[in-house]
C-alpha cells in the first residue's frame, strides 16, 4: 500500500505533464431561472438577476447572472452516482484530465476578472488549463498546489470571465 507522500509525488509527476494542455467543454445554455435560483440561494436579490425589464432599465441586454454564477460550480454535469465520487466527495472531471487518484482536494481561492455580462439564453463554453503544479512539504506531509486557469466564453468566442483558481491536493 502506498503512503500518502508516495501518492502525492506520483500525482505531482502526472499533473506536471498536464501543464499547458487545454480542455474545452460546452457547459450549455444558461437561463434566467438558473440566475434567479442562484440569486435566491446566495441572498442577493438584485433585480437585474431576477427580471428582464429591470435588467434592461439598468442598461443590460437581458437578465444577467450574478457575478459568481459561472465560477461557483465545480462541474456542470448532472452529477455522478455517489459510488463514483472521489474520496473527498468531488467528481472526477472537475480538473480536466489531471490525475489525482487517491488524493483529496480543497479549494484555496479564486482570482476573477469579469469581461462581459452572462445573460439569459447565452451558450457558455469553459476552457480549463493547468498553469502550474507545485510540490510542497510540511510537518503533516506532502501536498500539491494546483494553479488552474478557467476561461468562460460565449458561442461567439467572446470572453466572459477569467478565473485563476488554486487547489490543494493531499
TrEMBL record:
Superkingdom of source: Bacteria
Pfam family, one: FAS1_DH_region
Residue ranges annotated for the FAS1-like dehydratase domain, each copy included: 19-160
Name under which the protein is recorded: FAS1-like dehydratase domain-containing protein
Source species: Intrasporangium calvum (strain ATCC 23552 / DSM 43043 / JCM 3097 / NBRC 12989 / NCIMB 10167 / NRRL B-3866 / 7 KIP)
